[in-house]
């Protein structure tokens, strides 16, 4: 169930206005509306618009969702749930724009991306401020969110090289075969809340530069960054209808899965939603890529460099309040964990939990009240199952933001793999600590876990590192690197239950996902006719 209240448009919103620690001007300036803020009737709580056929249009929907600042509980904007007619109009606009866009020279499409990356840099502060307001992460971390997405846009600027086909001359006498990578048509993207800029930027820049048109559904919890990015894409010269934005939850997602004109879906989010989307869309013959949940482990060998390892564990475990799909969830210590636990707790205690814009904040709130409750319940289940609570962040009170959804860094030790807190993805600032006698035993724990997004080893032994690299069953491996997310010239290669599909996001695989291969065989020769032969043609001489 959505933690966000559903309000009727035109009626009083059921939120309490609280004294804002962010000046009203700031909210106006970084509003989520697609319309420039100075034109809005109200400086706060604007309605988020759809983008259909190049126009930012107000939805006719009567049902809206409040987009809430998780540190202050203020309503930042209202998100109307795109109606079925509006959804159809968005797909129709994308379909209409496709023939001309696919025939636009790739150099022109690349140049739009080149401009887009420049505009994202120009407006990086505005984007980061919006992310901080709607998602809660610290301003510095919000900049990281923008920057990691920007890198994919930069990658898309080189699409011509990436999208090159293959050519073999003279496959048979006077005959050549070559392959062309063609766009699919209308593609769609469904986004999670935790990276409001990066994940939309994993999707539409790659898709449209390949020549597709796109319908994007941002997370209903923080749609603002997508709206700003869409404005920038239009400013960069993306023709009308090439990028469209719709909003909503399950109904909109199901419309995307079912629509005959949508050829491919990129999804990032939880396993519940992802597997539903994968099954429903695949049944309609669509190409689907789903990046889903995770439980990322780090194995710590006693020979690891102490300071660097502890700093890495703390940063990867508690950064972004643990709401990263590559956050570190489990530390498995080989040998005695005690000396490590003391160092960990000491560092974690030193972290500042605060609203994202406050100076010195290390981690902000989690996304919603329900998320906080779920995280706290999972911590309690760990305690009830016999884990040792080394550091408890559940009762934290952040001065000035008493209503915020804060959870402080939490460390549970003596965790075993049968515990609920281990089996479930917690998605909060909670680090589970386990112990193993040998590297093999530690790897066995990791390999038995159903998820396979990322795993790291901390060691000074090359032999241990190589064994880990070869035998670990996770798609993204770190060696003395805690969050091994590859840059976009590689792909995001989660595996096992963390991914469904064949072709990953961005990199070569991203281009392959958004294109299909056509092979052409051509014959140009000036030879006397050999007469009619009904035998299967081969290149073999008989
Ligand atoms: P979520 O699954 O709740 O929502 C993601 C999207 O799916 C949203 O747009 C939402 O509207 C839609 N949705 C949710 N439930 C649905 C349902 N039952 N039917 C149809 N659509 C539905 O995920 P979230 O809470 O926004 O994001 C957190 C999750 O995303 C975590 O599990 C995290 O690990 C995962 N994630 C994975 C990656 C990755 O690359 N592997 C990256 C970021 C986040």
TrEMBL record:
Keywords on record? NAD, Oxidoreductase
Molecular function per GO: methylmalonate-semialdehyde dehydrogenase (acylating, NAD) activity
Task: Report any Pfam family annotated for this entry.
Answer: Aldedh
Q: Which InterPro entries is this protein grouped with?
A: Ald_DH/histidinol_DH, Ald_DH_C, Ald_DH_CS_CYS, Ald_DH_N, Aldehyde_DH_dom, MeMal-semiAld_DH
Write down what this protein is called. methylmalonate-semialdehyde dehydrogenase (CoA acylating)
Q: What is its EC number?
A: 1.2.1.27
Which PANTHER family did the record assign?
A: MALONATE-SEMIALDEHYDE DEHYDROGENASE (PTHR43866), METHYLMALONATE-SEMIALDEHYDE DEHYDROGENASE [ACYLATING], MITOCHONDRIAL (PTHR43866:SF3)
Which NCBIfam families does the UniProt record give?
MMSDH
Identify its protein family.
Belongs to the aldehyde dehydrogenase family.
User: What are the GO cellular component annotations?
Assistant: mitochondrion
Ranges where the Aldehyde dehydrogenase domain occurs? 56-520
Gene Ontology biological process: L-valine catabolic process; thymine catabolic process
